[in-house]
Known about the structure:
By secondary structure, this protein is mainly β. It has 4 domains: about 40-155, Jelly Rolls (Sandwich); about 165-275, Jelly Rolls, CATH 2.60.120; about 290-375, Immunoglobulin-like (Sandwich), CATH 2.60.40.10; about 380-485, Sandwich (Immunoglobulin-like). Helix content is about 0%, strand content about 50%. The N and C termini lie far apart (about 115 Å). About 35% of the residues are buried.
Amino acid sequence: MRASHLRALVVLAGAVTTAVFWAGPAAAAAPSNDNFAQPTTISSLPFSDTQDLTDATTEPGEQFPCYYASQSAWYSFTPSADEVVRFDTSGSSTPLPAVDVYRDNGSGLSGLGFMACAYPGQSSTVHLQAGTTYAVQIVSGYGYGGSVRLNATEVPAPSNDDFADAMAVASVPFSDTQSAAAATKEPAEPNPTCAPAPPSNSWWYAFTPSVTQSYQASLSSGTWNTEAVLTGTSLGDLTQVDCRSYGGASMAFRGVAGQTYYIQVSDVYAGSSPITLNLAVAPAPNAGFNVFPSDPSSYDTVNFWGLSNDPAGNPITQELYEFGDGTSAIGCCPNVIGGQVDATHRYAKDGDYTAKVTATTSDGRTATFTVPVHVRTHDVTIDKLTVPQSAHPGQTRSISVALANKRYTETVRVELFRSVSGGDFVSVGVLTHDAPVGKSTAYTFNYTFTSDDAAVGKVTFKAVATIVDARDAQPADNTVIALPTKVS
């Protein structure tokens, strides 16, 4: 007896005692299609059936591709024509329902060829061949029991599956969603040159623009979506205009008014996810560049670092730089995608310039971007470092730094260093002054010689000049090291 409850009711009526026994709720029966050899036949689509698998069993040799199960039931389907069928378990009460689809090779459980598995909340789309028998297994995972609902529906091919049935795009913006699950490929169809492999499916759109301009075609979703734009009148005379695949499935093409363009969409690996085609007027590209150094002098070769890109997905094929001083140059490379040095230029004299780039995409769209370039040549020079020839410990002597400046009045910081053992220098003083143009500016330090200097027998002084709030165009002449001073 399966019931776990047993109760006895004793009724006393005089000398008569009556005992009534109750065995609890009756056990649920195993489903009629519990065994692989007695499947329920799926005679037509759409099909739905619900089975309580609480008391279902499994047989030795059963496969469980989704996850382990101790209850299952079986169905059999032999389609009369080639078709694509979607299987799912929506509407089940058990928390872990699953459906597994096999090709039945006629040799029992051991001869089943696994094809697809659908987890809870998901579906599996399977291509089935006419006259072939398929076994469909429903399970309740990990012994949860409960009811499992099997749903099987035919997935039709897109209405625009064939070139001759291309969906007309009446106006933009336009959007349409189709699935590659049941799409086919015609014998004479061209293969998109950008696809990683020849697609086994496709569907078509026809677009005849009323205005000559650039249009953006983009795809979303799919496992490896591919789109190609072609011109022609039949499958045999199509010419590809452009093509994009996967993450790059966005492009712009120049549409001429009155010319019909065919857009071929496919999922290379025949995925079942929906793919949406969007068609709209293409946006302008993004032109841009950085200038390095940002504070150039007339001695610097200025790098123009290209940042142009196209949100429609096309390459930038040319960048025309105008430097603002009457000269220009073409960016360094065709098919520029941004993030590289595209042009260099050296300005002959100081001044304020406006540099401009005109970026052009492969389909002819353009955009411009300007950057102000302020050329200033800051340059000071240490003309002379005057130190005493000799000194003795405890003696304070003057050390003078003469600074020349020929460009702009600058605020200059001069730091004096003395040598220490090991060849290093340590700072012994800092002076900051304004250095006017056209004359020498003196920076005078007082240094008291030490017993350490005497122990070494000499000391060497170094002076370093730094322009405050500006970059020196020629810093090599900002450092001077004097001849050693003898200390005794």
